[in-house]
Amino acid sequence: MQDIWILVVVSLFALSSSALGSFLVVRQMVMLTDTLSHSILPGIAIAYIVQGEKNNLFILIFALLCGLLIVSIINWLNSRIRNRNDAVLGSVYTFFFAVGIILVTLFGEQADLDTDCVLFGEMLYIPFDTLDWAEMPRNFPLALVVGIGVLFFVWKSFRPLSIISFDETFAQSIGVNVTFWNYALTSLVTIVTILSFEIVGSVMVVAMFAFPPAIAFLLTKRLQIMLIISLIVSIFSVVIGYYFSVWQGGSSAASIVIVQGIFFMLSVIFNKVGFINKIKI
Predict the structure, then answer these.
(1) Are 33 and 192 within 8 A, CB to CB?
(2) What digits encode the pLDDT tens for the residues 95-114?
(3) Residue 177: what are its φ and ψ, rounded to 5°?
(4) pLDDT score of 201 more than 70
(5) Domains of the chain
(6) How far apart are CA 90 and CA 279, in angstroms?
(7) Cα(77)–Cα(73) distance, rounded to whole angstroms?
(8) Does residue 62 sit in helix, strand or coil?
(9) Cα gap 213→227, rounded to integer Å
C-alpha cells in the first residue's frame, strides 16, 4: 500500500506538470520551471530559518511569495528586453539560486535543510507523513486538488492558451488578454513547481515539465493530442521509474528522470530515422 500511495501522489503532480508543460514546450519556455525550481530556494530557506522546523504551510507561503516575485521580475524584464528570454531566465536563475545556496550553507544546519533534500526531494516519506484524521498521506489531498484544478484550468482555458502559445500578436488582434493569460499560466506553473519541490526535488520538477511534453511534441503537432500523449507518458514514466528504483535500490526521483530521458532519446532516434513520421498523429 505504501508503494501505491507514492505512485498516486507523484503521478498527480506529474499530470499537473505535464499538462502545463505542454504549453511551455510550444512557447519554448520550459526552462522557466528550471529557473523557478532553483530560484525559489531563498524563499524555502528563509521559511526554514524563521520557523526552525518543517512547516509545510509556512514553506508554501514563503516559496509562493518568492516564486511570484520571480515571475513578476521575469515578465518585467522580458517586456524591457525583447527576444532575450534565455538571457533573462539565466540571469534570474543564477542570482536567486546563488542567494539560496548561501542561505542553505549558512543556516541549513539549524533549519534542518540540506542540498540532498533540495535536489531529490522526499518521495519515499510520502506514506509515513499521514493526516491525523485519516489514514492517508498528508500530501494526497493537496496533490488531488492541484491535479484536478490544473486539468480543469487547461480544459476551460485551452483556446486562449493555445492561441497565445502559437502567436501572441494574433491573440492580441482578436481581443485575447495576453498579459492576463501569461500571468495566469506562469503563476500556476509556479504553484505546481513549489508544491512538487519538497516531494520530488528540483531535478525531477524540471523533468516532469519538460520530458513528457517534449516526447509528445515529436509524435504530433496537434496540441490537443499532445496534451493527451504527455499525460500518458508522465504516468508510465513514474510507474516504470519508481519500480526500477525499488529493484536497483537507487533514488526514485533520479530513476524516474532517467526513464523519461530514455523515452525522449528513443523518440528522437525513431523520429530521425523516419519511423515516427509514418505513425505521426
Answers:
(1) no
(2) 888 888 788 777 656 555 55
(3) -80, 90
(4) yes
(5) 2-198 (1.10.3470.10)
(6) 37
(7) 6
(8) helix
(9) 7
